[in-house]
């Protein structure tokens, strides 16, 4: 991933975070995802593997290219997403390719083996999973930073990555965590896209969280 972190002072570029800040972001989101991932593992009866969170100043167009480039062919993605507000604002997304979605929710609801795309029941199951992961992470982050992050009720959507993530070229703060079931038949991403105007508030939240750890 193209990374806009830097080992130099953050003041060199207002859109850059230094190495310590980037490490702190990874640690906070790692902690924030721990409890909801454990809850999902318990619900599915299977371990959910998480990658180390990665952070960059990027664009929706570039994020779409990265996520879409990892899919087979033009496979649509299924997404659960919702805006959040608080000390910093943005949008949280849980994204899985269609086949991975069917494998994931098949742990919870009966799925027709011939199904090519999620039906209403499968969509509801993924939405519930997204609610657990995304709002669970936001709740954990709220405790860590000492300020409430309020997430909207997540909604379901599907389509090409560009339709789901977007194609805007304005900079966004981007945190990505890859997720995969232990069996290997379902993998996706938890994405947190933060408004660039929130950078200073985000830095302050990081400092508060580090002081409390």
From TrEMBL:
It comes from the Bacteria. InterPro entries: CheC-like_sf, CheZ_family_phosphatases. CDD domains: CheC_ClassII (cd17910). Keywords: Chemotaxis, Hydrolase. One of its GO terms (biological process) is chemotaxis. GO terms for molecular function: hydrolase activity. This is Chemotaxis protein CheC. The lineage of its organism: Bacteria, Pseudomonadati, Pseudomonadota, Alphaproteobacteria, Rhodospirillales.
């Amino acid at each position: 991933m193209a990374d806009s972190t830097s080992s130099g002072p953050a003041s060199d570029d207002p859109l850059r975070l230094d190495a310590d800040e980037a490490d702190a972001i990874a640690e906070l989101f790692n902690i924030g995802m721990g409890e909801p991932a454990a809850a999902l593992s318990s619900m599915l009866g299977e371990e959910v593997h998480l990658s180390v969170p990665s952070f960059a100043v990027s664009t929706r167009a570039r994020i779409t290219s990265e996520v879409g480039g990892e899919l087979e062919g033009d496979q649509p993605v299924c997404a659960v997403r919702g805006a959040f507000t608080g000390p910093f604002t943005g949008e949280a997304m849980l994204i899985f390719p269609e086949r991975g979605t069917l494998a994931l929710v098949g742990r919870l609801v009966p799925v027709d083996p011939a199904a090519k795309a999620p039906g209403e029941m499968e969509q509801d199951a993924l939405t519930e999973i997204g609610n657990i992961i995304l709002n669970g992470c936001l709740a954990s982050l709220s405790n860590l930073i000492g300020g409430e992050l309020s997430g909207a009720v997540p909604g379901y959507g599907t389509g090409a990555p560009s339709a789901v993530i977007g194609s805007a070229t304005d900079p966004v703060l981007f945190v990505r965590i890859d997720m995969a079931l232990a069996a290997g038949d379902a993998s996706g991403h938890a994405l947190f896209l933060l408004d660039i105007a929130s950078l200073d508030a985000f830095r302050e939240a990081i400092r508060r969280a580090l002081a409390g750890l």
